[in-house]
Specification:
The complex is a heterodimer of chains A (465) and B (451). Chain A has 465 residues and is of the alpha+beta class. In chain A, the strands form 4 sheets. In chain A, strands 1, 2, 3, 4, 5, 6 and 7 form a 7-stranded mixed β-sheet that branches. In chain A, a hairpin with an 8-residue loop joins strand 12 and strand 13. With 451 residues, chain B is an alpha+beta fold. Chain B folds into 2 domains: 217 residues, PmbA/TldD fold (2-Layer Sandwich), CATH 3.30.2290.10; 220 residues, no CATH class. Chain B is 24% helix and 37% strand. Chain B has a 6-stranded antiparallel β-sheet with strand order 3-2-1-4-5-6. Chain B starts with a helix and ends with a strand. Classes of the chains: A alpha+beta (465), B alpha+beta (451).
């Protein structure tokens, strides 16, 4: 494989063609992605799959209009045809093919120490079997174990009419364990992911066994779970997966595309107090190894650490090229896309709440009655109204300052600006979790993080009266 | 013979002795237009193609399968994929139930699922539809403050499947959609509502209805409050009911059953739902937007009755899950495009319509909550345990009439309970994009969480 994917002079000529009809900005994004995945289900190794795709996405911007076309044909002819299709939105002018001068390529090597392609498949299977054994060792009520391992090696080069040329090599590895425990009350599930922008070094035998045991215990514990309560209760979120709360409660609402269309409850609120003073929220593409890490975003902009909320005050939104261009500022490195077949838009990277100085156990001890959420499963938000939900997949009652009965799965619901005010304690036990963020039909890997924290009240969507 | 089927057959020629090959080839042409403030904000035109290969080797303890896929049809990509699939197969566990589909004698029905108008309609006309949709929403009610985007999209999708076990299938489908999200405000909080219209071709789309729907949904949520928690009957509108049916369809997949992940396992013959509940999966009904002639293994699609008058009748199976369950495929293989492996799934669910309309359901329910949109379905529904808890917006039903709007609440129960608690099924069957059609359904004993 050619390390530059497409020769630089071809990129320059493609951009020149894309600008020929009067475009104000053009960009070529060339991507090559290799993936592999395998599943262990009930100790059977199945669905071993390898995939490869490569292609280019070309966009042309004229005024407020973006034209986009993509092709799997990386010859000059294929690229030029896609450039012309993308340029079709520029109807009124253009002075013919433009001369585009590209600067030197800024390339970013992969940080993976063990590239997935170097790993023997037998070793991967050994690791999956190891996880299966560990899960089943937790108890005979574990009736089903599914282990999935996947990796992707993504190399892209992005060039634009401003002369930028940048490349990145992103290696990501993930390992998920799903368990089912069966008892008198039916079946319950447990799930643990391990994922990072890293190579196979991410997966030690200890790490996968630990995840597997955690998933199994979660399922077994829930066999005794009672329906979650319904109504407004104090909630303590364990360090790690609670970060999804901020991803939904305000992360999406701080993306500049929603802001510029006045489709976010946070529009026009920079400089205002939008959260409890305990909240300092950061989106940070530079956290090396994390699931949402990137050396450069999918528009060639370096990943950055951006403070969004500082001590409760909204400091800034997240930006991509298009949105920042309209505002006459620079992108914050949040322009991301699922693949060359997609247009970039404003996306989060690793979004986390800075740790506080409270003690996690103390926070629980000082909560007379409420819900302790050990793991969250995902969520969704309506940025225009601020209403959001997030699901708890491992939770317990807190009674008299102690963690007591396990609860069945349910969603929690709240309104972003309201819930942000309700943070009244943040501990120091910070950790992060990987997740997949979906927006307008595109999925990208993101990280979320936080320390154990308490909300004075959130609506628990349980089935108990 | 279709060009794609010829390509698939050509790849079969590379089969080595003793191995079976299955090839799935797909091609798509997509157009998407997004209108904002009366102008094209984004215009995407794209053509894509690719293939997925599965190679099967028989051994003493059963068969082993390896898979590979590529997002192109280059010779080099094919050679690489064949090599990778063969290599992957050597690491799989020998499994007596693993096999490729073989022709089963069920004849494919003849369906017209394509319309040349998708390809023949000019880009200008498609752009005009998106712009018109936005204009209608913005101009339709003074309380509409913003339209985040108004979209038109269409596709032409073709696929072919060929295998050394005798499968030869090719099929095509076209579709066109418009959708719009409106933001309404009358001095208080913003509220949103979205409208859509779907068809096989641009001419099938009802732009006015999509606009009216978005406006109505957004404006009638104005002034919504968060009520106190209570238990009641919830009435799901056709769209939200369709989401519910899709979730139930997931638990009726033979794949979930044989993998020990379905609460329906071992319950065939039992009453699992109210007697008014008859659910079928029928991809041969051309009114369904996801109708199909063949399944994802190239077997003819067929009509499968899953729950009849409350009694669990059957699951849907693909070849492997059927063999594991000791039965035959129901022609229900689905796959997530070229990169996916076949599995069993519902494709075109519909609930047998009841004989009362939505207004009559409100009258009979008397007091309850009308659910118009769901969110957090992926985070709040556990299809294995059946726990169900989702965020909703909607309106209260008081004295048999729609009353004040409510928001920031969840509705909760378990899927098992909800099926048994179905109180009324509406006559208002609505064809929707996705794997399920919908109609108004009332379900008792729902916990509503609010303040």
């Amino acid at each position: 494989m050619n390390s530059t994917l497409v020769e630089q002079d071809v990129l320059a000529r493609t951009l020149g063609e894309a600008m020929a009809r009067g475009g104000e900005f053009a960009e070529v994004f060339v991507e090559d992605r290799t993936t592999s995945s395998a599943m262990l289900d009930q100790r059977r190794v199945e669905q071993l799959s390898s995939g490869h795709e490569r292609g280019a996405g070309i966009r042309v911007v004229v005024g407020d209009t973006t034209g986009f076309a993509h092709t799997a044909d990386l010859t000059e002819g294929g690229l030029v045809a896609a450039a012309r299709a993308a340029a079709a939105v520029a109807r009124d002018g253009g002075g013919g093919v433009r001369e585009i001068a590209l600067g030197p390529l800024r390339d970013h090597p992969s940080r993976a120490t063990i590239p997935p392609g170097d790993v023997d498949k037998a070793r991967k299977i050994e690791l999956m079997n190891h996880a299966d054994d560990a899960a089943r060792s937790e108890g005979s009520s574990i009736t089903q174990v599914q282990v999935a391992l996947g990796d992707s090696t993504r190399h892209f080069v992005v060039a634009n009419s401003d002369g930028l040329v940048a490349g990145d090599h992103q290696v990501r590895t993930r390992f998920n364990v799903s368990c089912i425990a069966t008892g008198d009350t039916g079946m319950q599930t447990g799930y643990r992911p391990i994922a990072g922008t890293r190579g196979f070094e991410l997966l030690s035998a200890e790490a996968v066994a630990d995840a597997a045991r955690g998933a199994a215990r979660q399922a077994i514990t829930k066999l005794d779970a009672r329906p979650a309560p319904s109504g407004d209760l104090p909630v303590v979120l364990a360090g790690g997966s609670g970060g999804i709360l901020f991803h939904e409660a305000c992360g999406h609402g701080l993306e500049a595309d929603a802001i510029m269309k006045q489709a976010s409850v946070y529009a026009g609120k920079v400089g205002q107090l939008v959260a409890s003073p305990l909240v300092t929220l950061v989106d940070d593409g530079t956290v090396e190894g994390e699931w949402g890490y990137l050396a450069i975003d999918d528009e060639g902009r370096p990943g950055a650490r951006n403070v969004l909320i500082e001590n409760g005050v909204l400091t800034d939104y997240m930006w991509d090229y298009l949105r920042s261009r309209k505002e006459g500022r620079v992108s914050s490195g949040n322009g991301r896309r699922q693949s060359y077949q997609h247009l970039p838009m404003v996306r989060m990277t690793n979004t986390y709440l800075l740790a506080g100085d409270a003690d996690a156990d103390e926070i629980v001890a000082q909560t007379p009655y409420g819900v302790y959420v050990a793991q969250l499963g995902g969520g969704q938000v309506n940025t225009a109204t601020g209403d959001f939900v997030f699901g708890m997949t491992a939770a317990f009652m807190i009674e008299d300052g102690k963690i007591t009965a396990p609860l069945r799965d349910c969603n929690l619901i709240g309104n972003g600006p309201d819930v942000l005010q309700r943070v009244d304690a943040v501990a120091s036990d910070f950790s992060m979790m990987p997740g997949t963020c979906g927006k307008n039909g595109q999925s990208v890997p993101v990280g979320t993080g936080q320390a154990t924290m308490r909300l004075t009240g959130v609506t628990i969507g349980g089935a108990a009266a | 013979m279709s060009q794609l089927l010829e390509q698939a057959e050509r790849i079969l020629e590379s089969a080595h002795g003793g191995e079976e090959i299955e090839v799935y080839v797909a091609r798509g042409v997509d157009t998407e237009v997004q209108s904002y403030q009366g102008e094209v904000e984004e215009l995407t035109t794209a053509t894509s193609n690719g293939f997925g290969i599965r190679i099967l080797n028989d051994g003493a303890g059963g068969a082993r399968v390896g898979t590979a896929w590529a997002g192109s049809l280059d010779d080099e990509a094919i050679v690489t994929a064949l090599r990778e699939a063969r290599d992957n197969a050597t690491f799989a566990t020998e499994d007596e139930f693993v096999a490729f589909a073989r022709p089963d004698g069920v004849a494919a029905v003849s369906l017209t699922l394509t319309d040349d108008a998708v390809a023949n309609t000019s880009l200008e006309e498609k752009i005009a539809m998106a712009i018109e949709l936005e204009r209608l929403v913005r101009g339709g009610d003074p309380r509409i403050r913003q339209v985040e985007s108004a979209n038109y999209s269409d596709y032409v999708a073709e696929a072919a499947i060929a295998s050394t076990t005798g499968i030869r299938a090719s099929y095509a489908r076209t579709g066109a959609y418009v959708s719009v999200e409106a933001i309404a405000n009358d001095g208080g909080d913003d509220q949103t509502g979205w409208g859509l219209s779907a068809g096989r071709a641009p001419g099938d789309l009802d732009i006015e209805k999509a606009a009216t729907d978005a406006i109505r949904r957004a404006t009638r949520m104005l002034g919504a409050v968060k009520p106190k928690s209570f238990k009641c009957t919830a009435v799901f509108d056709p769209r939200t009911a369709a989401t519910l049916f899709s979730i139930i369809g997931g638990a009726l997949s033979g794949e979930a059953v044989v993998r020990g992940r379905s609460f329906f396992a071992h319950r065939v013959g039992e009453m699992v739902a109210a007697p008014s509940f008859t659910l079928l999966d029928d991809p041969t009904d051309p009114r369904h937007f996801s109708a199909s002639v063949y399944d994802a293994e190239g077997l003819a699609c067929r009509r499968n009755v899953l729950i009849e008058k409350g009694e669990l009748k059957a699951f849907v199976y693909d070849t492997v899950s059927a063999r594991r369950a000791g039965t035959a495929s129901t022609g229900s293989a689905v796959r997530g495009g070229i990169a996916g492996s076949p599995s069993a799934g519902c494709r075109a669910l519909q609930l047998a319509p009841g004989d009362i309309d939505q207004a009559e359901i409100f009258r009979r329910v008397g007091n309850g909550v009308f659910v118009e949109s769901l969110f957090g379905v992926h985070s709040g529904v556990n299809p294995v345990s059946g726990d169900f808890s989702v965020g909703v917006t909607g309106l209260m039903i008081r004295d048999g009439q729609l009353a004040e709007p409510v928001r920031e609440i969840t509705v909760a129960s378990t899927l098992q309970r909800m099926l048994l608690d179905v109180a009324h099924v509406g006559s208002d069957l609505e064809w929707l994009p996705g794997s399920a059609a919908g109609q108004t359904v009332a379900i008792d004993n729902i916990a509503v969480s609010g303040v």
